[in-house]
Amino acid sequence: MKRSLYIFATLMLLLPFSAKGEEPEGRPSTHATLFALGRANHLDTYLSPMEYTGPQLTFLHTTLRHLKRNEHIVFETATQGEVSYTENQAQTAHYMGGSVRYDFGWGRQWRNVLWKGLELTAGGMAGGDLGFLYNDRNSNNPAQARANMRLSAAVRADYSFRIRKQTLGLHYQAQMPLVGMAFTPQYGQSYYDLFDRGHYDHNIVATHPGNALSLRQAFSLDLHIRHATLRLGYLSDLRQLKANGLRQHQYGRAFLIGYVHEITLKR
């Protein structure tokens, strides 16, 4: 019964975000395709009480466009995929992990705040993750599935300026989940009991900052080179969950590089 209530409540929360964003007419739609190489720190007490660290590769694609009826309302989407290979401090075991993340939402934009060229945006986003973590040493319960849905508060700041003849752009974005739900087994519960025997034991839990405090931040600089725009930046992605007697976190920090292009849709 509680699982049904969680699912129903989350779907109701996501309902305002389910409508398709209107395409802008005569306004630019900004697309950014980025790659990131950095370090990951994993903790999942279902698999091991130890932290695992190692390299992580991330792909990120974002779009930002204005609604045609109100140029101060922006619609944003973000798709993120990542793979990691981490090891414990003793170098006796490894995690292989991967996940796919998607977020979308709307924000209100204010232009030329404080000084010319500065834009501030605040709003909300909805999204979810699907992923896995595999331990090559465990013979019993060697893998853990990851799945969650969330509603998040989101803010961003964009500043365009010129140095001599060079146009530059500074960007900052932060996203913090406020409410949602996540899948997690109970401490000591096997996936065989859960899926083959159907022994459900509160495996869908409500999430909030009290048990899943998370924060995603990105800083970047745009360099306009002739007809192309190069983006360099830094990504900090901190995710946590404490539920059903288990703790898990996934901390990622990486340097970003990619390109940005704008498409102006005809009226």
Describe this structure in words.
This protein has 267 residues and is mainly beta. The protein has one domain (2-264): Lipocalin (Beta Barrel), CATH 2.40.128.100. Helices cover 7% and strands 66% of the residues. The chain contains two helices and eleven strands, in the order H-E-E-E-E-E-E-E-H-E-E-E-E. It has helices at residues 2-14, 191-196; strands spanning 28-44, 48-66, 73-88, 94-111, 118-135, 143-163, 166-183, 204-207, 215-225, 228-243, 246-264. The protein has a ten-stranded antiparallel beta barrel. A hairpin with a 2-residue loop joins strand 6 (143-163) and strand 7. The termini are far apart. 28% of the residues are buried. The model is unreliable at 4-25 (pLDDT under 50).
Question: What structural class results from the helix and strand content?
Answer: mainly beta
- The CATH class designation is Mainly Beta
Low-confidence stretches: 4-25
Q: In this structure, how is the largest beta sheet organized?
A: 10 strands, antiparallel, barrel
Q: How many helical elements? A: 2
CATH superfamily label:
OPCA outer membrane adhesin/invasin
The arrangement of helices and strands along the chain is HEEEEEEEHEEEE
Q: Beta-sheet strand percentage?
A: over 45%
**Count of β-strands:** 11
Which outline best applies?
A: elongated
Sheet with most strands: strand arrangement: 1-2-3-4-5-6-7-9-10-11
Helix content: under 10%
Average pLDDT rating: 87
Distance between the termini: 50 Å
Q: At the third CATH level, what is the topology name? A: Lipocalin
